[in-house]
Design a protein that fits this description.
The protein is mostly helical and 457 residues long. The protein is built from 13 helices and no strands.
Length: 457
């Protein structure tokens, strides 16, 4: 048997004898020494007076990233708070739904946000149908001189030319009827009358086109300023639009030209079918093709309908304005079609009602309710011209207002223009260049430097 008892003067052997106690041995790696408390397990809090391990929060300290917070502590950013704790600012509490995050292009709180600013009586947020119709009426009511008064002046000038055509046509019809009654017709006089009518019609068409261009441009400027709560006079509107009249004239002619060119394939095919004596096929193509062309004309007109506001407010050329209008109407065709159709119906009914008193006066002074004839009196022609001016002065601003507000609505929905307009509404002393830079695509705001204006064409 081996004697493991240590001899005198020799050190004790580990693991032998009564002296082999835990405190007599050096601590193993990771074990606490004599008088030390063991480190807490993961997720446990250290005892009083102890230092937490590396990465563990101490008493009263905030937990590190990814660690659960202690009682009364705020959770890290992006984490849910514990039971009974207050969530950080802007974060939903326990059991509460997350806050609504609006899609890009919409104002804060979404398009139906209550309490949106209305500096001009039109809410600066994406507009509903009622907002557009009410907004057009509000723009007219707040600035009647620059809307109804402007339309009355421009249409009055155009109405003089139209009335002159009607009077000339009335005189030619009277002379022709007198010659036929007498059994003799002077061909030279008839040719001169027809030539005169052609000149008068041409002059009337040009005057009417100029009136349309001027009225469209000026009403766009007036209503565009009215959205921001700014009232402008007729003279101020003229100074704003005058540099853009050539572009408005160009975009109007270009739109009409495109609408006319669309009919060329239909007419050519129909002529070929008729020339080759394919009567049945020509009849079928004539009916079906005509309906298809009407649909194509409506689609094209709707897609180009926002070009005049683009020309005036964004200061783009005619071709660029047509492309811009096509992009803005994209994926919103049926909405714009419905609003335009409803507006035309409302305006037509209102025009017929407003025309009733003038039709009654016409019948009393020797006129009729139909077209001009040899028996129509001069007084009835003049009354008819006055009635057209009055009706147009009321209905034209409504159509222009709806068009401009649809343009603003499309930009607020797709580009977040409502946020820019809210900032700009606070600057009532905006210069012309600041106002122009505000509407350009990608404009950062009214205070930023506006880029150089593009050319008219």
């Amino acid at each position: 048997m081996t004697d493991n008892t240590p001899r005198e003067g020799e050190p004790d052997q580990p693991g032998t004898g009564p002296a082999d106690q835990p405190g007599d041995q050096p601590p193993a790696y990771g074990q606490p020494g004599y008088g030390q408390q063991p480190a807490p397990e993961y997720g446990q809090q250290p005892g009083y007076g102890q230092q937490p391990p590396y990465g563990q929060p101490g008493y009263g300290q905030q937990p590190g990233y990814g660690q659960p917070p202690g009682y009364g502590q705020q959770p890290p950013y992006g984490q849910q708070p514990g039971y009974g704790q207050q969530p950080p600012y802007g974060q939903p509490g326990y059991g509460q739904p997350p806050r609504y995050s609006p899609p890009p292009g919409y104002g804060p709180g979404g398009w139906n946000t209550a309490g949106a600013p209305q500096p001009g009586g039109i809410p600066l947020r994406p507009l509903a149908l009622g907002d557009i119709l009410n907004g057009a009426i509000t723009a007219i009511r707040r600035n009647p001189a620059a809307t109804v008064g402007l339309a009355a002046i421009v249409l009055g000038i155009s109405g003089i030319a139209t009335t002159a055509v009607a009077l000339a046509l009335h005189g030619s019809l009277t002379n022709a009827e007198t010659g036929l009654s007498a059994g003799s017709v002077d061909l030279n006089n008839l040719q001169n009358s027809l030539a005169s009518l052609g000149v008068i019609f041409a002059v009337s068409a040009v005057v009417g086109l100029i009136a349309l261009v001027v009225l469209t441009g000026m009403l766009t400027a007036v209503i565009g300023r009215g959205v921001l709560g700014q009232q402008v006079s007729i003279g101020q509107a003229w100074r704003v639009v005058r540099p853009r009249l050539a572009a408005v004239f160009g975009v109007t002619l270009l739109t009409w030209l495109i609408l006319a060119v669309l009919w060329i394939p239909y007419v050519v095919i129909l002529i070929v079918l008729i020339a080759t004596h394919l009567t049945v096929l020509a009849a079928i193509f004539g009916i079906v093709g005509f309906l298809a062309m009407i649909a194509a004309e409506v689609i094209t007109w709707i897609r180009f309908s926002l070009a005049p506001p683009v020309v005036v407010l964004e200061q783009l050329g005619p071709a660029a304005a047509l492309r811009r209008s096509w992009q803005l109407v994209s994926r919103s065709f049926w909405r714009l079609f419905g609003i335009f159709l409803l507006t035309v119906i409302i305006v037509t009914i209102a025009g017929l009602i407003l025309q009733i008193p003038f039709d009654i006066v016409k019948s009393l002074v020797g006129g009729g309710f139909g077209s001009i004839g040899a028996t129509t009196s001069t007084a009835s022609i003049i009354v008819s011209g006055i009635g057209s001016i009055v009706v147009g002065a009321i209905t034209r601003p409504v159509l222009a207002g709806v068009t401009v507000l649809l343009y603003v609505d499309m930009r607020m929905r797709k580009e977040g223009l409502d946020l820019v307009l809210r900032d700009a509404a606070q600057n009532q002393q905006m210069t012309g260049e600041e106002f122009a830079g505000l509407w350009r695509a990608g404009a950062p705001g009214p205070g930023a430097a506006a880029p150089a204006p593009p050319t008219s064409w």
